[in-house]
Specification:
Domain Ketoreductase: 7-184
Distance between the termini: 68 Å
Number of helices: 8
GO biological process, one term: fatty acid elongation
Oligomer: single chain
Structural class: alpha/beta
InterPro entries: KR_dom (IPR057326), NAD(P)-bd_dom_sf (IPR036291), Sc_DH/Rdtase_CS (IPR020904), SDR_fam (IPR002347)
Pfam families: adh_short_C2 (PF13561)
Shape: globular
Catalytic activity: 2,5-dichlorocyclohexa-2,5-dien-1,4-diol + NAD(+) = 2,5-dichlorohydroquinone + NADH + H(+)
Radius of gyration: 19 Å
Order of helices and strands: EHEEEEHEHEHEEHHEHEH
Number of strands: 11
CATH topology: Rossmann fold
Strand content: 15-25%
């Protein structure tokens, strides 16, 4: 088995939030990690006295992605793991979202992971590596207000299963369905601290997820323990969101008749 210090991971969008947690966790496991973004972080992403490489790269640009992956492979001699983490979307009314907006969301959340995976494929095949795509609960339930994002993430889940079929046995490809996660921008997504507490209380595990929860799942899927797992979607969502109708029923109990 390859020693931890000899494994190389590529993580897109690894400078903040879930991505930074994944980078730090992989560094702690002995990986050499390369990440990217459109602008450098204020401080290097580090763990256990080791730092991740950072390169500026717009992953929506397939040619730029090719140059970045080639540079990482030249620098480190191999690529064992690709984590397609970069993504997201601001809220947008589906009725009025501009074509340019929708295209950019699709490029970031669906096409960019494909570009990165294609560029890294020869290196992954050479070492029997794996790809982990970071998807979302928006892929598997309605996503009002971020409809194009949900559609893109659903496409990413479908892409995962197709690539697992096409690229096996040399390369395993899996997806993580990420639930409601606390990050440094949680207030922008979930509202006030009180609102976040109510959301956490509504989940079966009585808390929102953390970046480390997703990072642990990534490390598992990349490990020998997952050697026979490919084309899978691992749900990291604390048991899932409680259906709204149950709350309505509870609030109106006894009102019938």
């Amino acid at each position: 088995m390859v020693e931890g210090r000899d494994r190389v991971a590529v993580v897109t969008g690894g400078t903040r939030g879930i991505g930074a947690a994944i980078v730090r966790h992989l560094l702690g496991q002995g990986y050499r990690v390369a990440t990217c973004g459109r602008s450098a972080p204020e401080a290097p992403i580090a763990a256990d006295g080791r730092e991740a490489d950072f390169d500026a790269c717009d992953i929506r640009d397939a040619e730029a992605v090719g140059r970045w992956i080639a540079a990482v492979a030249a620098r480190h001699g191999r690529i064992d793991l690709v984590v397609n983490n970069a993504g997201g979307s601001p809220p947008a009314d589906a009725a009025t979202a501009s074509p340019r907006f929708s295209e950019r969301i699709l490029h970031l959340n669906l096409l960019a992971p494909l570009h990165v995976s294609q560029a890294a494929l020869p290196h992954l095949r050479a070492v029997g590596g794996s790809i982990v795509n970071i998807a979302s609960v928006s892929a598997v339930r309605p996503s009002p207000g971020t409809a194009v994002y949900g559609a893109a993430k659903a496409g990413l889940v479908s892409l995962t299963t197709s690539l697992a079929q096409e690229w096996g046995p040399q390369v395993r490809v899996n997806a993580i369905i990420v639930g409601l996660i606390e990050t440094e921008t949680a207030e922008m997504t979930y509202g006030t601290g009180q609102a976040q507490q109510r959301i956490a209380a509504s989940l079966p595990l009585r808390r929102m997820g953390r970046g480390e929860d997703v990072a642990e799942a990534v490390a598992f899927l990349a490990s020998p323990a997952a050697a026979y797992i490919s084309g899978a979607r691992l749900e990291v969502h604390g048991g899932g969101e409680r259906p709204l109708f149950l709350e309505i029923v509870k609030e109106n109990a006894g009102a019938v008749g």
